[in-house]
Amino acid sequence: MASTEEMDLFIRLNTEGLIQYSLSTNKLNRTIVLCCQENTMSTPLRIHLVIAVFLLTFSITGIATALSLAPAWKEIPIAEGSYFDVMFSADGSTVYAGGNQMFFRSWDGTDRWGGRAGQVATMSSDGNYVVSAAGNLVQVLDRNGTVYWIRGMGAPIRAVAISSNASIIITADDRGDIHSWTGNGESWGLNRSDLVKQIAVSPSGSFVVVTTAVGLKYLHPDMIPFWWDNKSGSLDSFIAISADSSTVITSGEKRVSSHTASGTLNWMKDITREAIIDMVC
């Protein structure tokens, strides 16, 4: 863990309730963006009716600095509803939005589809697949919106995750079951746990992280746990894993924590005034 002299904390709050924490050490720079329910906000940050995508140009010298910000294109939802979440593929070529409905678009508009429910859904970081759940069913769709496979669980599905190349799909239901599937839909592993809040697959595909009602848990892709930190009334809700899979960032309530891939605690800080409602690193 970096010493006090080695780590500086920079905070920026904008009018939409986004707080950016840039953690700078003598070895590397990391940026954590938290969405918080501030006193000046009546509702969490959301994207309603129109999704606007902005092209950001960053200078990677020390802490990234935005050099330009300009609208690139806009999309109106196919049906009535709103988007709650937006993500880019790793190469920036594809945009995905979830919420009352999903929307998928390649940057140039060649691939473009949406309209399905997307409240429990996410996209693989290579931009080629989307995993979505409704009720007891989970489905995987390709970048054209074609359903690749559909599988069922024993209770309504509450969380999903997909590896960077869609070789691992994880689903968790309201009964406490966490199920792993191969990329072609074959059942891989099953773990009975406490109710899951969020799931993340490491970019390396070597482990899975889940936050539950009682604590943080690491599992192998076959759903055999290898580390856990059970706490009564755990604060952890949101998960982000570094590109090299070496660092796991979790947050919840007012707290942000950093662990290694083996579970060792790097640091833990209470750093927001109000509850964190989303996070990206």
What does this structure look like?
The protein has 281 residues and is mainly beta. The chain is 0% helix and 56% strand. Strands 4-7-8-9-10 form a 5-stranded antiparallel sheet, with no helix packed on it. A 4-stranded antiparallel sheet has the order 1-2-3-27, with no helix packed on it. A 4-stranded antiparallel sheet has the order 11-12-13-14, with no helix packed on it.
Which features does this protein show?
281 residues, mainly beta, five-stranded antiparallel β-sheet, four-stranded antiparallel β-sheet, 56% strand, disordered N terminus
Indicate the proportion of strand residues.
over 45%
Written as H for each helix and E for each strand, in order along the chain, the element string is EEEEEEEEEEEEEEEEEEEEEEEEEEE
Number of strands: 27
For the biggest β-sheet, the strand order reads 4-7-8-9-10
Q: What's the story with the biggest beta sheet?
A: 5 strands, antiparallel
Q: Kindly, what is the distance between the CA atoms of the first and last residues, rounded to a whole number of angstroms?
A: 18 Å
**Rg, nearest Å:** 19 Å
| Overall 3D shape | globular
- Kindly report the oligomeric state of this protein: single chain
Low-confidence stretches: 1-30, 37-68
Structural class: mainly beta
Mean pLDDT: 77
The helical percent reads under 10%
**How many DSSP helices?**
0
